[in-house]
Amino acid sequence: MQNLFLTLKQLIQEASAASTATVRVQGIVSRVKSAMEVAVCSLYLSGEDDVLTLAATEGLNPESVGNISLKPGEGLVGWIARTHHPLNLKNASEDPHFLYFPETGEEIYKAFLGAPVVHGGKLVGVLVVEQKEKRKFTEEEESFLVTVAAHLGSTDPEDFKIGTTASDSSETHRNYRIRGIAGAPGVGIGRALLLPDAMDLMKVQDATATDIEHEMALFQKAVNSTLADLDASRDKISGIVSGDVGEIFTFYRMLLEGNELPGMVEKDIRSGKAASPSLRSAVIHFSSQFEAMEDEYLRARAEDIQNLGNRLYARLRNVEVPKIQSNEKVVLVGGLISITDIAEYPVEQLAGIVSMRGSALSHTAVLGKALGLPVVMGVAHGGELPDGELIIVDGFQGQIFVDPQPSVVDEFRRLIASESGLVKELSKLKELPAETVDGARIRLFANTGLLADISPGLTHGAEGIGLYRTEIPFIVHGSFPSEDEQVEVYRSVLKAYKGMPVYMRTLDIGGDKPLPYFPFEEENPALGWRGVRFTLDNSVIFMTQIRAMLRAAGDSNDLHITLPMIGSVPEVETFLRLLESALEQLNEEGFAVVRPKAGIMAEVPSAIAILPFLKGKIDFVSIGSNDLTQYLLAVDRNNPRVTNLYDHIHPATLQAIETILTHTRGMEIPVSVCGEMAADPCGATLLLGMGIDALSMSAFSIPRIKWLVRSVTRAEAVEQLSIAKQCPYPAEIRKQLREFLCSKGLERLFVPK
Ligand code: PEP
Ligand code: MG
Question: 144-195 pLDDT, tens per residue?
């Protein structure tokens, strides 16, 4: 056998680089066959009703691909599928489970080794090797095949689904689906308008500058015209969407006007490099700092830098964006679609956005949400999309359908009609209180972290900000932002929500959210120097932030300071001392400030037990169900390998939240939930049942949850909670809650699959 490690590595690399599922699965069987020096390698994939179909083979009759199917339990392959166990047989035909398919030409093979491919506990395929002579495969061979199967199981099963990529579909049925990441909800149908690769800075080759001054002038000109583009885009978007969504462009402006990025480009040009490769190096340098961060929100900021780089590059080369040629609606498709790209086109002509790279937290997604455009990001095989192709963008499920059949288009048109009906219907609720049928008043707040996210909250009827994540002003800076700079940002948030509570969380940085300009490494970052642990140790930074918050709030009573990652009483006490001294300092300096309300995030399990000791010290509790679930279940909330284990509808989380509520009642202080659980219809129902009266969520979810609140009674929610508490299976609890909510006419809260 060839070098195992090398083969595995090559196999994984080739599989991920394959352009279509057919190429991918064929490549896998062929590499395994040659590595193990066997006569046959075949891959069976599980489809509808768990039936296994031969998807690829090297050695068996190729015509049998797609034509051999086995139910679980049927034949040796079906037996492996049923038992989830490998099978190593000296002579397959002597085994009682052996089933013979003459069309495969399999009868001449005796030795048989098969391994199950399992993803998230579910069987997705069976990988088999065969040989002519009677012999048992060695332990080394068996372990190799099992390892390959485990690797296949660790990738997204969609990557192996034949027919999900362009070249897998037949000419007559081009109706194929490509999966991505849901960026902004909604469904849109239009023709693909491809943004050219010529705008992709990463494709630039190294080149030296023949005339340094000329290159400097070119770059300066590109910076100026990009700044002008940003202003024009900002004005345009601000004219369409009320509030401060246009602020999103300020973020780009800050990147461009700060000294860091342009300074680095100019330094490179001066050293003799041409402008474009200098720009590419600077963009790689700054974006990779963000890409290295574990926190997905911060990681998404790398896209902003890359987007800005592409825009500067287009300006350097005078590349114009393509024009829309007809009156038909278009779907913008490109490698990395930026907010300035979107602003180039009339919004009424856009049906949606498809970006091959990028995450759900990108500004492109934020802007899409604000404009009501469905957005799908990270579309793996999008490069194969032809210009002008009809595309359905399903921003709910994070998928697109290319060249769909008329029946599929009709189905989606029905969904669009029902969605726009729902959004319109729910907008009528804006001025109505979130009150249950039996009169329990629930306050609904918005979660936000960007200035650009502020106005959607107001448009959707938010009664304040339940969680303002202050990380952003810190990360866009090349160094810690000054007190004055922070005052300006916090003031604009408080001003937009004047007279309403604004819960501003102090810096939740460190560990998995390192600042690019303050690097440190830890073995176990989720349990390390994070949130308040970091700020208490860096009291100068902390003091500056507290002072900035107090100054921004002035003499209003709207400010609520929330402390993240609290796990012990001394942490709160130290903060309170800092708060007192900040108030004293500011009073002495002549600022009109008042003592704000101060509270904690309940998101570290140890915070629960210390709550009674915090009586009289804190004014509120905000439950961070995301981290609380992560730490209670010991499941990393960002690790796709364990997503199937991560669910806030888990008895441990439900019990913990009930205990928190018992404590806060005893302490006579208000409590809210600001993690994702608040926006989940099932989660929100259980929280209502527990007696919660404040929920904070993304702006988009507010009308939906208000609809839910106004459709049920607290008593019903209490009953649902008591049924849920009898059940240890999150999936079953969800089923029960879904049935209940559907019985209340709320099925449209559950986006159709
Ligand atoms: C949480 O942990 O639930 C929370 C709201 O905070 P974040 O998601 O920012 O960690
Ligand atoms: Mg948290």
Answer: 888 888 888 877 777 776 554 444 444 444 667 788 888 888 899 999 998 8
Residue 122 within any structural domain of the chain: yes
Task: State the Cα–Cα distance between residues 617 and 599, nearest whole angstrom.
Answer: 8
The residues facing 354 across adjacent strands are 333, 376
Where would I find the beta strands (DSSP E) of 522-614?
Answer: 559-563, 597-602
Question: Pick the residue with more confidence: 255 or 691?
Answer: 691
pLDDT over threshold 80, residue 204: yes
Question: Is residue 551 included in any domain, yes or no?
Answer: yes
Question: Which among 472, 601, 676 is the best mutation to test ligand 1's pocket, defined by most ligand atoms within 8 Å of the CB?
Answer: 601
Protein residue with least CA distance to atom 10, ligand 1: 627
User: What domain range includes position 534?
Assistant: 443-745
CA of 260 to the centre of ligand 1 (A): 30
Helices (H) and strands (E) in the chain, counts: 26, 22
User: Is there a single domain that holds both residue 129 and residue 191?
Assistant: no
User: Phi and psi dihedrals of 355, rounded to 5?
Assistant: -115, 130
DSSP label of 196: P
Residues 129 and 190 in one domain: no
Structural domain contains residue 565? yes
Nearest ligand atom owner, CA of 626: 1
Decide if 119 is catalytic: no
- The pLDDT of residue 169 is 43
CATH of the domain at 100: 3.30.450.40
Residues 347 and 301 in one domain: yes
The CATH number that applies at residue 588 is 3.20.20.60
Residues 467, 389 share a domain: no
Domain end residue (candidates: 162, 192, 220): 162
CATH number for the domain spanning 228: value is 3.50.30.10
Tokens of 428: 């009528």
Tell me the range of 63-67, 78-82, 106-110, 468-472 where mean pLDDT is highest. Answer: 78-82
**pTM exceeding the 0.85 threshold for the entire prediction:** no
User: Is residue 185 included in any domain, yes or no?
Assistant: yes
What is the arrangement of strands in the sheet containing 187-194, beginning at the earlier edge strand?
Answer: 176-179, 399-402, 390-394, 187-194, 330-334, 350-355, 375-377, 181-184
3-state helix, strand, coil in the chain (%, to 5): 50, 15, 35
| Domain match, 212 and 311 both | yes
Mean pLDDT along residues 238-263: 75
Which structure tokens are listed for 65?
């691909």
Residues with CB under 6 A from ligand 1: 467, 469, 508, 603, 624-627, 674-675
Number of structural domains the chain divides into = 3
pLDDT of residue 257: 84
Q: Residue 173, exposed/middle/buried by CB under 10 A (0-12, 13-18, 19+)? A: exposed
Out of 1-5, 62-66, 186-190, which region has the weakest mean confidence (pLDDT)? 1-5
* Count of beta carbons in the 10 Å neighbourhood of residue 178: 22
Dihedral sign computed on CA atoms, order 717, 720, 724, 726: positive
**Catalytic status, residue 674:** yes
In this predicted model, which residue has the larger pLDDT, 159 or 260? 260
Query: Rounded CA gap, 709 and 443, in Å?
Result: 10
Among 209, 228, 333, residue whose Cα is nearest residue 271: 209
One domain, residues 150 and 234 = no
